[in-house]
Amino acid sequence: MEAILQAHNYAVPVREVLEALAQKYSRPSLRAMDPKHSGDMLKHVEKQTELLTDAYRSMSHELQRLQVEEEMLMHKYYEFMEAQGLIKKKQCNNMKTEEGTGKAGEVD
Prior knowledge:
The protein has 4 helices and no strands. The chain is mostly helical.
């Protein structure tokens, strides 16, 4: 490509040169597709579409299941943290109450 640009003084080559390069470097199977195989190609594309749709549905279902599981775990985690917070809160309230009444450190 560098040689072609140098030959054209780094200007964009004319359309014919670009088309010749495209023909030279493109895949022959794409350039000369036989029309009698278009039915087979359509079936193949439809089958791929069906497989991709099934994969999409499966992945969407799995994603939804994981989101529900995440929500349940976060709810359980919140309950756990709330329970831990309540225990600490009760301990702090008991210490404040004992300090206020002068019973802190007394043994019954």
